[in-house]
């Protein structure tokens, strides 16, 4: 079975359909990995979410920060921003089905055959794959349970900025989710910076991209989240592949064949911003 990993969709439904045609995607023969942020900012958030939901057994999706934002807004613990394109989802007759499916998606996906791991934002270099798997399962168990609704009021926040194994309760869950869905720049101790969101030259003093620190394993880490990288990872000291080429900002939607490393891109329909 061929696995194609695809970067953040962000509601770019037309480009998603064109990309599936370009890679000759056949459900059952092929399988998709998607790096999260299925929705928001793009013009077809509802259509895109329905499209991926319809591919359920043929697609593996990890949760991104925009997906969690949708869930927070939908369940009364977040506010729509002027740039959000979520209203159609919130008003859709099938919203409950879509939201329930979304909150049960994982934070991390693996393929031992291809020696690949996918998360939305990346992996701390201090975490082994085994440890990351453990932490992902902790977060996923909460997100898919009734505990999720108790956690929602406490999900947002930048503290603690560094994960410590001794953390407990909401602080522990928040730190885990921030690593998987929000991480960009870190320091050598694994402290996350949440202020810088642009390119590499926006790094605060003492901070570097998480992938510029060496790891003790060789698995390829596939991630999205960081549109300013335009599908690149300059200076990487780990085996990584960035797939968010900023389609929603006028860049491109990118897919990579996990077996052959073939990359296929579809240019955005909207002008670059």
Automatic annotation (TrEMBL):
Lineage: superkingdom = Bacteria
- Provide the alphabetized UniProt keywords: Hydrolase
Q: What is its EC number?
A: 3.6.1.41
Q: Where's the Calcineurin-like phosphoesterase domain?
A: 1-145
**Catalytic reaction list:** P(1),P(4)-bis(5'-adenosyl) tetraphosphate + H2O = 2 ADP + 2 H(+)
- Which InterPro entries does the UniProt record give? ApaH (IPR004617), Calcineurin-like_PHP (IPR004843), Metallo-depent_PP-like (IPR029052)
Q: Does the keyword tRNA-binding apply?
A: no
The keyword Ribonucleoprotein belongs to this UniProt entry's keyword annotation = no
Similarity-based family: Belongs to the Ap4A hydrolase family.
Per the entry, what this protein does is: Hydrolyzes diadenosine 5',5'''-P1,P4-tetraphosphate to yield ADP.
What protein am I looking at? bis(5'-nucleosyl)-tetraphosphatase (symmetrical)
Q: Which organism is it from?
A: Kushneria pakistanensis
């Amino acid at each position: 079975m061929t696995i194609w990993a695809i970067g953040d969709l962000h509601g770019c439904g037309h480009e998603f359909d064109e990309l599936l045609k370009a890679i000759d995607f056949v459900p059952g023969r092929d399988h998709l990995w998607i790096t999260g942020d299925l929705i928001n900012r793009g013009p077809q958030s509802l259509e895109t979410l329905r499209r991926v939901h319809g591919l359920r057994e043929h697609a593996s999706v990890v949760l991104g920060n925009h997906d969690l934002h949708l869930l927070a807004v939908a369940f009364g613990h977040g506010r729509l921003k002027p740039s959000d394109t979520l209203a159609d989802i919130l008003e859709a007759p099938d919203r409950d089905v879509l939201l329930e499916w979304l909150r049960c998606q994982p934070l991390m996906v693996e393929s031992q055959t291809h020696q690949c791991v996918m998360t939305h934002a990346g992996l701390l270099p201090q975490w082994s794959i085994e440890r990351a798997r453990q932490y992902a399962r902790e977060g996923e168990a909460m997100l898919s349970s009734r505990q999720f609704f108790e956690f929602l009021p406490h999900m947002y926040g930048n503290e603690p900025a560094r994960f410590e194994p001794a953390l407990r309760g909401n602080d522990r869950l928040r730190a885990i989710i921030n690593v998987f869905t929000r991480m960009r720049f870190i320091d050598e101790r694994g402290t996350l910076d949440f202020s810088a969101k642009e390119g590499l030259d926006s790094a605060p003093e003492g901070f570097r991209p998480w992938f510029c620190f060496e790891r003790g394993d060789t698995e390829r880490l596939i991630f999205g989240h960081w549109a300013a990288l335009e599908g690149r990872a300059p200076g990487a000291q780990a085996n990584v592949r960035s797939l968010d080429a900023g389609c929603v900002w006028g860049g491109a939607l990118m897919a990579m064949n996990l077996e052959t490393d073939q990359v296929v891109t579809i240019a955005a329909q909207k002008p670059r911003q």
